[in-house]
Design brief:
- The chain is α+β, with helices and mostly antiparallel strands.
- The longest helix is centred in the C-terminal third of the chain and has 53 residues.
Amino acid sequence: MAKEPKKKLPAAKTPPVAKSAKGKKAETPKVAARAEAPPAPRGKAKAPVKTEPPEDAPESVDTDKARPARRASAETMASRQREISVSEFFTKNRHLLGFDNPAKALLTTVKEAVDNALDACEEAGILPEIIVEIDEVSENRFRVAIEDSGPGIVKAQIPKIFAKLLYGSKFHRLKQSRGQQGIGISAAGLYGQLTTGKPVTIISKTGKGRPAHRMAIRIDNKRNQPDVVKDDTVEWEKEHGTRVEIELVGAYRGGRTGVDAYLEQTVVANPHLALRYKTPKGEVTDYPRVSNDLPREAQEIKPHPHGVELGMLISMLNDHAGETVKHVLTESFSRVSPAIAEQICSMAKVSSKAKAGSIHGDAVEALHKALGQVKVMAPPASCIVPIGEELLIEGLKRRFKAEVYFSSTRPPSVYRGNPFVVEVGVAYGGELPLDEPGEILRFANRVPLQYQPKACAISESVYDTNWKAYGLAQPKGGLPVGPLAIVVHLASVWVPFTSEAKEAVAHYDDLLREMRLALQECGRKLGAHVRAKAKADNELKRMSIFQRYIPEVAGALGAILSVPKDKVEKVFYETLPKYVNIVLQPDDEAPPSGGGPGGGAAPAPAPRDGTMPPPALPAALPTKGGKGKAAKVAPASPKKSKKGAPEQLSLV
C-alpha cells in the first residue's frame, strides 16, 4: 500500500514589516513583556530564557454610550437655597454661646440673667438686689430663677428681649456694659426650650401701683420671633423688678468653674451688689453689699478715628450722603474738631466741602488712611467705669481671708480706637494655701471669666510676669507658688472676646502691655511686703534666741555683780527691743493707704525713738503664715554716748 505524501501545514502569517521612507526594512520592535536575560558569564552556557505570555490589552471604552444624567442642575440647586435664621444657626451651634455641656449650660444661664439684672439696675440708678434660685426638678433637670430689683420691662418689649436673638439696646452703643450682643438671655431660653420643651416664664413690674405682667414665651426657630404662650397679670409684692424662670437640662457642680464660684467672684467685682443664693441642695447664702454707692454712670461716646475700618467709613458716608465730608467727620467721630477734619481732608486730597455720597474708590481709601495717620487726642474715658482701688480691695476681702491686700489701676489707654482701663488686685498670706500655685480671677467689665484660661490674654500676662523678682517662687512659664490670689479686671467699651461665649480676651499688644505694667506695679508693692516679712521672721528668730538665754545670762551676771536675777532679766527685756525693733500692728488698724492686715500696701516701718515705751514681748512669737498680728521689724542701731561708745546697761 503506497504511503500518502505528507501534507505541508501552512506557514504562520507574519505581520508585514513596515518600511522606512528610504525603502529599508524597519527593525521589528521587541515585545515589551519579554524580558532579556542578563549576559551569562564567560565559559558557561547561557541559561534558557523563560518568557511570559503577553498581558491582555485593556478593553476599549465605548465613547458612543450616553453619559449618566446629572444628579442636580443649576436650577434644582437654586430651588434648594433658603435663608437661615440666626436662631436656627445657634440651635445647631449652641457651643458657640457657652452651652457645650450640661454643667456649662447651667452656669451660662445664671450668668446671662445676672449680667442683665446688674446692667438694668445700674442704668436705672438702683442699688441691685438679686436673688438666684436653682431647684432640681428631677435628675439632671433644673429650674433656674433670677429675680432683681431693677426698673422692670414694659409689656411690649418682654417677648422680644427674651425670645429673639440679636435683639438688644447695647450693641450699637460705645459705653461700658456687661452685655454686648443681644444674644445671651435669649440663647439661654432657647437652650431650655430645646432640652425640656418648656417655655421661658417672665414676671415684670415697672412701678408701684402698676400691674405685674406674667408671660410664658417660646422661640420660633424658623423666624427668630417670639411666640407668646401665656399672658396674664399676677399679684407681686415688689414695687418694681423682673423675675425670669428657665427650666433646662444641666449639671450642678462645684469647683472653680461652677455656679458657686461665679457668684463668689461676681460680688468681688461688684461691691455694691446684695445677693442671695439658694443652691439645689436648699442651702441659702447671703452676700451683703459692702458699698452703698453706685458706680458712676458710663457716658456714651462716638467712634474714634483711629479705630474705624474701611467698611464702617463707607457706611458712614453713605448714611450721610447729602452732608459734606467735613460735617460727617466732625459729627460721627470723637475728638475730631473742624480743624482736624480739614487736616484729614488735606492729607487725603479730598475737598472738605464735597458731598459724602460723591466719595468713592481710591478717595475713600485715602480718607481712611488719613484717619489712621492724623494725630488726635485719645477718646474720653468717661465711657469706662473701673471698680477703683479701694473698692477692689473691699471686694477681695469678701472673697479671701488674707494678710495683706494691694491694688493698682492703670490710666486709660486705647486699642483700635476703643478706650480701656486695666485694674489689678492682689491678696497675700492669711488663710491662702502656702504650697499651691496662686489663683487668678479674670474679669471683663465686672463679669467673671471662668473658662479657657490658657486662651486668655489675662492669663498670659500673669504667666509672663517675673514673680521671682518680688520674692515668690515661680516655675518657668507658670503661676507663682504661694499664698497668693491675683485679680485682673479689663474695663472697655468693647471687650475683644475670642468668641460669642465671652470666655477669654483676645491677645492685643496694647492690652497685654497695660496688663503687664499693672501687674508689675502691684508686684512691687507685694515684693516690699514679702521682703519685710522675711526680715521680720529672721529678727523674730533672733529675738527668740536672745529670750532663750536671758535667764542663764541674767543669773550668771547677777551672781558676779551681786544683783538680783529678776532685776537683770528686767533690764534685758526692756533693752532688747531697742536693738531689735518689733512693731505689732493689730488686725483692725488699717494704714491710710489700705495696708497691712486691713488691706493695701503697708508703709515702711520707721525706727523707734527713745521717747516711746518699748512694747511688751509676746509670750508666743508669731510664726510665718500665722494669723492674728503682722510683725513689722526695723532693726534699730544701739544708742551711742557722746564719746561714740555704745550705751552701757545700768543695773544699779
